[in-house]
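Quick start: read one record
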Amino acid sequence: MNRRKFIHAMAGSPIALLVPVPANANLLTAGHDVSLKCLGNANVPRFLDGRTRDGTVGLAPDLTPQFSGTKWHVSVGGGDILLKCLGAVEGARWLDGRTKDGTVGLAPGTARPFTGTRWRVMQIDANNPDIVALQCMGDIQGPRWLDGRTANGTVGLAPSTDPPFTGTKWEVRLYPVRID
């Protein structure tokens, strides 16, 4: 190895350790805290935001403390995942897809009748494991794909991940491990 290649390799290594990188889909496992960035075709807002005060879900423009509902704790539920909002205000916390009417909100628990709190993680790009789609596993037939609507900051369920539903693709980002 010549000197230039050696210096380049050594200089790049410490920098890579300091720059945060998005998590991949296998980090959507029990015990991790994550944020989900919507990859819809409008620029902002983009981050899945649970609003525990009123049980709603929308998109936030950034991950600042003002939007504490953008941090989610991953749990396991019957082979699928559960996403618990870690917002600072008390209230309902479990991401709940309502397949009957295609809406999304927060539920106070994960047992029946809240079957929409179970989500299946689907890796949708073999070349980029950081990009996933989340399929609601609710008992009632209807739209199932978590869909961030970046044009107006809302979140709902879409019938597919195909266009025009560009908000069904999510980038997973890992937070440091939470201390209880």
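Residues 3-18 form the longest helix (16 residues).
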